[in-house]
Amino acid sequence: MQGIEDAGFSMCTPIQAETLPVLLSGKDVAGQAQTGTGKTAAFLVAVYNRLLLNQPKEQRKQNQPRALILAPTRELAIQIHRDALVIGKHTGLKPVLAYGGTGYDQQRDAITAGVDILIGTPGRLIDYFKQHVYNLKMAEVVVLDEADRMFDLGFITDIRYLFRRCPPPEQRLGLLFSATLSHRVQELAYEHMNNPVHVSVEPEKVTADRVRQVVYHTSNEEKIPLLIGLLSQGDPSRSIVFVNTKRNAERVWAYLEGNGFKSAVLSGDVAQTKRQHLLKEFQDGKLPVLIATDVAARGLHVPDVSHVFNYDLPQDAEDYVHRIGRTARVGKDGDAISFACENFVYSLPEIEAFIGHKIPVEAVPAGCIAELKPPVRIKRPPPRPGGGRGRPGRGKAAAGRQTGNRNRQR
């Protein structure tokens, strides 16, 4: 209770109010709620409650976690761990974090030194499991967060591998949370959970009510002048600009920097230490604009994001929901501004069908097409002796490196 107070919670959100009574009574839950509604706090409270009410078995070793929490991305795993430290500060229970891309030996040593709640991404956790760094024989609680994203990223085989190393479903508490409870997610729930209670909070409202959505129909050439014009007339203290490709992200960054907006690119190939540094600067308000590919669309909780710009409309309708869910979190207001350009306007009908309503269309405000200053120069890696610059996707060696990087990040 002291940890909940420290976290600033005084009232339950709808998903917390619906799931906590079920979880605290010892029943499994498969929960659906839109992003930013407090799912993380719901399952953390349930995990800590279960572990505090039940004494660990005498034969349990210090490297045998009592709870396993799986997340699809490094950023989400880091966020869950951060929240777990706050909520569980006074419990004496130790959460440990494991994810790919950095800190291999440090994370391994932390698990070996003792872990109660193991939080991480599937690839790194399986790596340690196969090295016998830990085992799951004493797992009393299993949590799967963003289950639909696990499917999107191809992690389901890994999830099943870990679940099958845990005690049977009837001997543990199972929690599954997802923004969408598709048939494949429900099949996973029935396969690896003990008759879970399905909880859906306002499933007909796919997007949050407090997000003010608008779409501007624009030519490809007008997108950057319009973005800079909107940022100039608004308050860019904390804005996320979503793009579909790293190439577009670099181009937008170059123009923003050249026109006086401090920004940074967050994409899949940014080193983990740099990613964390950029996110901290963004959270602290030192970096007003973050340009992101969809690697950042899920699981990130950055307080007070005022604007989300869909510079490129996503080609997957679900990604639209997760992108705009970065703003208007936990009762706050926010704006989601989308550009329907020549290349990606064809995604708009699918997005509107998915969210169940038309996105309001507005004319571009007068004076919002900015006169551009030249972009800054994008620094490229030097050419390699064999020709080319060694950029991802060039040749078999590059393809091998790219695959290896993905495996390490998992």
Helices and strands, with pairings:
Blueprint: H1 2-6, H2 14-24, E1 29-32, H3 39-53, E2 67-70, H4 74-87, E3 95-98, H5 104-113, E4 117-120, H6 122-130, E5 141-144, H7 147-152, H8 156-163, E6 173-178, H9 183-192, E7 197-200, E8 211-217, H10 223-233, E9 239-242, H11 246-258, E10 263-266, H12 272-283, E11 289-292, E12 307-310, H13 317-324, E13 334-340, H14 348-355, H15 395-409
Parallel strand pairs: 1-6, 1-7, 2-4, 2-5, 3-4, 5-6, 8-13, 9-11, 9-12, 10-11, 12-13
How would you sum up this structure, described in words?
By secondary structure, this protein is α/β, with parallel strands linked by helices. The protein has 2 domains: 2-200, P-loop containing nucleotide triphosphate hydrolases (Rossmann fold), CATH 3.40.50.300; 211-355, P-loop containing nucleotide triphosphate hydrolases (Rossmann fold, 3-Layer(aba) Sandwich). It is built from 15 helices and 13 strands. It has helices at 2-6, 14-24, 39-53, 74-87, 104-113, 122-130, 147-152, 156-163, 183-192, 223-233, 246-258, 272-283, 317-324, 348-355, 395-409, and strands at residues 29-32, 67-70, 95-98, 117-120, 141-144, 173-178, 197-200, 211-217, 239-242, 263-266, 289-292, 307-310, 334-340. The strands form 2 sheets. It has a 7-stranded parallel β-sheet, with helices on both faces. Helix 5 (104-113) links the parallel strand 3 and strand 4 (117-120). Helix 13 (317-324) packs across helix 14 (348-355). The longest helix is centred in the first third of the chain and has 15 residues, at 39-53. Mean pLDDT is 85; it is low at 387-410.
